[in-house]
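Input structure tokens:
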């Protein structure tokens, strides 16, 4: 068998060069159209943009056919780096821009064995990708102009802010697939491998003695080490599986204003405006003062304070590329700490709106709910909103585990009446005293030891 470097097809270099030249040409063509839109007819702009997009899609298909060669090139590059490292003692970390993000997850004692814990580790390995730079445009400039030229005139005022580059950066990277990751929890080590999306998700069994030595309150940490030998530290929140209340909470339009039913406002609230919590309503005491009754942060804080052994788990259909910013939102607004269970976004879906409203979101949430209910015998409180499929999801899981779900709370965001037929259908067969529709957090009870109504 020949050596990989001898069998490499160098025609890939030529084809990639040609494609890059064409990319650059289309880039400047689109820049010209954007900057001279007042001097060119709308029909001409639409025609040129349409042809450019079609041609780009054609080039992308051709370029994607070189995927195997690209992987071969990466293999050769790593081989060269290894030889440089061995021969000249070169630190190859200077060549590597790989990053790893670890999502806060959960650990629980096995129901059938007090001496073992099941620890869930979830992470994402990625690196910068020059091919996803939107043809060399500043990413924020591209999205801002594209959005403002495609939406209705009445909606453009909502997009007057600047795109936040920090929120976009994680969407324009390359997933590191098939990478070996070493997980270390105390003295326990285990090797994992990333999937096609650069993610790893694994349940690791750890003995109780190791957990007790590592834990600080209800938290332990672990280390994840990639092939670049960089360490990342992850957080695991330990939950008592046999008693207590677990609150499973959606994020968007439940505790954070996202307006998921409106494509333009969803874009703006995700990539332009600061994340804002769902507020409470105000009551006027007199002409000179008013006081906020309760907002969603206040509700969650009181739930944590007033209900014994209460844990929080943020289950969302939003992209896990927004995990860091969402964690900051939780911290800044003083929501209780908890685990995060989000989905990984891929551009093949088409748009953030389609991603959120896909059947995959339903499957994602149902899978996690079943996981929690299967591995513990705690009681559960489910809270979401009417913007997506939360009523249907929570109704389905409650019919599967009628004795385990203590309460369901749904925030009505479309102006629905509390006895809307949709809710009656979603919660068919579930006692009415177990579910509550609300449009103001003050309508939700603090005491979770009994049914909401």
């Amino acid at each position: 068998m020949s050596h990989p470097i001898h069998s490499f097809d160098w025609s890939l270099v030529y084809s990639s060069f040609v494609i890059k030249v064409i990319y650059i040409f289309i880039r400047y063509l689109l820049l010209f159209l954007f900057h001279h839109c007042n001097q060119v007819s709308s029909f001409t702009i639409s025609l040129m943009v349409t042809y450019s997009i079609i041609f780009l899609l054609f080039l992308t298909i051709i370029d994607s056919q070189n995927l195997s060669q690209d992987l071969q090139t990466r293999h050769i590059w790593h081989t060269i780096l290894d030889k440089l490292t061995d021969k000249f003692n070169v630190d190859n970390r200077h060549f590597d821009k790989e990053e790893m993000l670890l999502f806060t997850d959960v650990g629980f004692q096995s129901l059938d064995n007090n001496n073992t814990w099941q620890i869930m580790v979830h992470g994402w390995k990625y690196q910068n990708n020059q091919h996803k730079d939107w043809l060399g445009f500043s990413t924020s400039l591209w999205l801002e102009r594209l959005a403002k030229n495609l939406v209705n005139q009445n909606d453009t005022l909502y997009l007057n802010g600047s795109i936040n580059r920090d929120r976009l950066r994680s969407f324009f990277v390359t997933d590191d697939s098939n990478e070996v990751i070493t997980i270390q929890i105390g003295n326990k080590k285990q090797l994992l491998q990333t999937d096609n999306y650069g993610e790893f998700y694994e349940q690791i069994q750890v003995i109780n003695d190791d957990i007790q030595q590592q834990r600080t309150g209800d938290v332990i940490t672990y280390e994840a080490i990639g092939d670049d030998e960089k360490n990342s530290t992850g957080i695991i929140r330990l939950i008592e599986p046999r008693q207590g209340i677990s609150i499973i909470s959606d994020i968007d339009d439940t505790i954070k204003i996202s307006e998921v039913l409106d494509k333009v406002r969803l874009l703006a609230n995700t990539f332009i405006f600061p994340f804002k919590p769902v507020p409470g309503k105000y009551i006027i005491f007199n002409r000179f003062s008013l006081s906020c009754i309760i907002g969603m942060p206040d509700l969650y804080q009181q739930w944590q304070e007033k209900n014994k052994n209460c844990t929080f788990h943020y289950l969302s259909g939003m992209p896990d590329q927004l995990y860091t910013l969402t964690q900051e939102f939780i911290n800044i607004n003083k929501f209780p700490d908890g685990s995060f269970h989000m989905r990984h976004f891929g551009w093949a879906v088409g748009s953030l709106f389609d991603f959120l409203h896909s059947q995959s979101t339903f499957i994602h949430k149902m899978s996690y709910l079943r996981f929690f209910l299967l591995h513990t015998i705690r009681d559960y409180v489910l809270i979401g909103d009417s913007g997506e499929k939360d009523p249907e999801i929570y109704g389905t899981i409650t019919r599967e585990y009628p004795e385990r779900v203590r309460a369901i709370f749904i925030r009505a965001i479309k102006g629905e009446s509390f006895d809307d037929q949709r809710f009656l259908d979603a919660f068919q067969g579930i006692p009415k005293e177990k579910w509550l529709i609300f449009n103001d957090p003050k309508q939700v009870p603090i005491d979770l030891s009994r049914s909401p109504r």
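The radius of gyration is 25 Å. The chain has a mean pLDDT of 79.
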